[in-house]
Amino acid sequence: MITAAIHQPGYQPWLGFFKKMISCDVFVFLDDSQYEKKNWYNRNYIRTSNGSTLLTIPTISNFDSKTNEVKIDNTKNWALKHKKSILTNYSKAKYFETHKEFIEKIYDKKFDLLIDIDIEIIKYIMEKLGIKTRTIFSSELHISETGSDRVLNICKAIGCEYYISGATWAKNNLKLEDFAKNNINVRFEEFQHPTYTQCYHPFMPNMAAIDLLFNEGDNSQEILKNVRNLVIP
Predict the structure, then answer these.
(1) Angle between the 78-89 and 96-108 helix axes, to the nearest 10 degrees?
(2) Which pLDDT tens digit goes with each residue over 37-62?
(3) What pTM, to 2 d.p., does this model score?
(4) For residue 5, what is the enclosing H or E element?
């Protein structure tokens, strides 16, 4: 029985992104869908002493740009700002030294495409969280349909029997009868955010996943593993 999940690659993703990875056998990076501005492809929050701050990578894209075509606007000094913001705000975290070198290297490296930095960060976090789920890119499957038909054909292409989905978009847009006809069971899940030790109080959920790594280190794997997502009927 193969369980799959599909999600656009994001910048410094939150913990729900990685919990979805843990919950499936095959995780598909939806890299050839249309790029949406003001989404999580190029931004996310980190914890600060004053609450949180939104880190955003400036991008260059057209109306019809695919996610894997979006370029980074390197005329703006965003990388240095992001590096300083992360290193400054997590300098007091218990496991700061463990991840400091990666943060310095990733932001000293020049990336032309947004997806490249997104995936490199995701791979690092996967490694630190002990996630060994098989990953593939939707562009490798050469599926031209959109919407529900696209999701269905991705599931069929990888031969899955179970598809894990969030409910926000999918509840109103997936054609569940088509999935049933193809013997694919759809399970809607809602991430239940864990509480853990942060270097600032009070606890704030929904930060980038590096927040957990900086604060909990080797305990991060167990904390995320123990999360029980809410299954939505």
Answers:
(1) 180
(2) 889 999 999 999 999 999 999 999 99
(3) 0.97
(4) strand 3-7
